[in-house]
Amino acid sequence: MASATLSTSIPTRGDSFSNLIPNGLLNSKLINFSFLKRLAPRGVAATVRSTWRTAEHGGGLATEEDEEMGRIRRLQNGSDVRGVAIEGEKGRAVDLTAAAVEAIAESFAEWVIEGLETGRRVSVSVGRDPRLSGGALSVAVFAGVSRAGCLVFDMGLATTPACFMSTVLPPFSYDASIMLTASHLPYTRNGMKFFTKRGGLSSPEVEEICDRAAVKYANRVVKVSTLLRTPPSKVDFMAAYSQHLRDIIKQRINHSLHYDTPLKGFQIIVNAGNGSGGFFTWDVLDKLGADTFGSLHLNPDGMFPNHIPNPEDKTAMSLTRAAVLEHGADLGVVFDTDVDRSGVVDHEGNPINGDKLIALMSAIVLREHPSTTIVTDARTSVALTKFITNRGGQHCLYRVGYRNVIDKGIQLDADGIETHLMMETSGHGALKENYFLDDGAYMVVKIIIEMVRMKLEGSDEGIGSLIKDLEDPLESVELRLNVISEPSFAKEKAVEAIETFRNFVQEGKLEGWELDSCGDCWVHEGCLVDLNDHPKPIDAQMYRVKVYDKENGEIGWVHLRQSIHNPNLALNMQSSLPGGCLQITRDFRDKFLVASGCDRFLDVDQVDKFVKTGLAR
Ligand SMILES: O=P(O)(O)OC[C@H]1O[C@H](O)[C@H](O)[C@@H](O)[C@@H]1O
């Protein structure tokens, strides 16, 4: 091993350096030693270095400090922190403890202070969703942030977009914000999202913060503070944020007869799934004159007793659909727990989420900004690309993960390629006009304004009519393949499988499969395969492949990637040929999984089941 690598790298936790380590791992994704040295008290850095040396010599056990540091590092999930916060999951212990949260919050606050280099005390706001663990973990955040020397502002029950908005809306304008949420994950989980005035943090930034927290945590004898240096000040930011949303609706509709109640005469059903989104009903819609009778699950309940708050959830959508039809409402709205995502139901009861929601938002945005570029993740249908380009827009397909999609849009826009909308199929949607922030409430605001505008222009067709010409893909399937490995190696094994897949495709071992360098994106070759003009560290490995057949030409695509949250691979595919997905899956299994030997460390049950029965999951 080259000495240059020796002096700059240390292993990540759990690298017990057995011969289980996948090829090349020892040199990859290792944190920077000089960074660690700056932070780590001598003992810790020395332990880390000596463990690394053990590795260099081919063996040795991870120390207790390594274990502790690894536990904190593994809480990073892309651009968020996520973990189990309360007991209740079979086989999964609590790892998002108050001590871990405190160390991470303190590290974030230090990172903000260093970045701002201001003489005054830095201010940080804190919000949370209704999860049962939220109260206790808030206290841990207050302790960590105040321990770093910041002023803390407690927003209480809040939404993720509101946390960001608290950094830009005067008079609040806090320097940074932390939201405690695990979005649509079960009640046992919780997590953290981080914001500065520049927006949400990227995966490498969160990784840096977790590395810092890991060292801090491992070096602490007493892990949890009992004393708050500065008690938090309570603020009712949600009231100000709601007024901000109301003002936007009033100003943009500019109703000639009733300016302050522009939603008079409209019935809108909100399904908040017992998450944080209830405010949108009583503090935004009701006050603007809408009739919200029939709305569902508005009261916050950290057990989420009705269904998972998630616009991708079938129950959430079908209950909302039923309520819209029962009440003859104009619109149904479904929020996820922390309201950074949403979906809608039109007045005919048609659910609009996934590709359909992207199409709806594209139709609205393209009217305002003809020819704008729209960035989505690369699991969208060929029909969506057609929908966007037929209206004069450009469609850039990029990597899964809302932060990736948003960051790509920001980068394109900065490079002079006008980009107004960035959306993931999961329902994260960000608009340039709204700080490039993924904001489920703001998306609904845009849709409501469009709905009223259409009505005022004399159309009774409703917002569903805007996407009438969007075709559904003939076949669309998602399968998951669990990685069978010790948890600390799961990520690396996933990368190994995905890179092997890429090699197989490139070497022509799967006939008719061709690595898709940029989907149907015209912007730059290679954007999808991470060869950006501004390369960024990769948070999850993924490739999209176009599939051709001799008789029919291009028949579909395959997208293989590491899951962001779990030790598994996600295999998505679409086909325009009946039975195409079955054939694709058969080839994937026989010519890749079995031929490469990856089936030895991947659980191929779902693949086998689909091949046998045609049923996914
Ligand atoms: O990797 P998965 O488990 O499929 O999750 C992927 C999804 O995770 C979260 O929900 C993120 O907010 C999304 O941006 C991402 O697409």
UniProtKB/TrEMBL annotation:
Cofactor dependency:
Mg(2+)
Q: Which UniProt keywords apply?
A: Carbohydrate metabolism, Glucose metabolism, Phosphoprotein
EC code: 5.4.2.2
The reaction(s) catalysed by this protein are: alpha-D-glucose 1,6-bisphosphate + L-seryl-[protein] = O-phospho-L-seryl-[protein] + alpha-D-glucose 6-phosphate; O-phospho-L-seryl-[protein] + alpha-D-glucose 1-phosphate = alpha-D-glucose 1,6-bisphosphate + L-seryl-[protein]; alpha-D-glucose 1-phosphate = alpha-D-glucose 6-phosphate
Q: Which InterPro entries does the UniProt record give?
A: A-D-PHexomutase_a/b/a-I, A-D-PHexomutase_a/b/a-I/II/III, A-D-PHexomutase_a/b/a-II, A-D-PHexomutase_a/b/a-III, Alpha-D-phosphohexomutase_SF, Phosphoglucosamine_mutase
Similarity field:
Belongs to the phosphohexose mutase family.
Alpha-D-phosphohexomutase alpha/beta/alpha domain location is 75-212, 241-349, 353-453
Q: Which PANTHER family match?
A: PHOSPHOGLUCOMUTASE (ALPHA-D-GLUCOSE-1,6-BISPHOSPHATE-DEPENDENT), PHOSPHOHEXOSE MUTASE
One Pfam family in the UniProt entry: PGM_PMM_I
* SUPFAM superfamilies, per database record: Phosphoglucomutase, first 3 domains
Q: How does it assemble?
A: Monomer.
This chain's protein is named phosphoglucomutase (alpha-D-glucose-1,6-bisphosphate-dependent)
